[in-house]
UniProtKB/TrEMBL annotation:
Keyword Membrane assigned: yes
TM region(s), chain numbering: 15-34
Protein name, entry field: Cytochrome c oxidase assembly protein COX16
Location(s), subcellular: Mitochondrion inner membrane
Alphabetical UniProt keywords: Membrane, Mitochondrion, Mitochondrion inner membrane, Transmembrane, Transmembrane helix
Family: Belongs to the COX16 family.
This protein's record includes keyword Transit peptide: no
Cellular component GO terms held in the UniProt record: mitochondrial inner membrane
Membrane-protein topology: Single-pass membrane protein
Length: 98
């Protein structure tokens, strides 16, 4: 009989044990995520479309300086890096004695 009284006095039922903590974590998590994503929304809204550089018909950026040509940039990169000229270097193995 004493165990039943202790259980009822301190237990509080399944809602207080499981439901209330789940509800509190859900509400706090929702407001926490709103706070975290608000900074992202502010950054997106800070960049107005007028600040972005528009593309012309060929897909090049409009700029005051020289034109950006992607094919030319790819050719320059291919001249710097030769993917067929390489050598395999073994990775040193760790000894199990240490």
């Amino acid at each position: 009989m004493d165990q039943v009284r202790k259980r009822r006095a301190g237990g509080g039922g399944p809602f207080l044990r499981f439901g209330l903590p789940m509800t509190v974590f859900s509400v706090v998590g929702f407001y926490g995520l709103v706070h975290l994503t608000q900074g992202r929304r502010e950054m997106i809204n800070a960049h107005s479309p007028a600040q972005l550089q528009p593309l012309n018909k060929e897909g090049e950026l409009k700029s005051e300086g020289k034109k950006l040509d992607l094919n030319e940039e790819l050719r320059k990169l291919n001249e710097k890096v030769n993917i067929n000229d390489y050598e395999n270097k073994p990775v040193p193995k760790l000894s199990s004695d240490e």
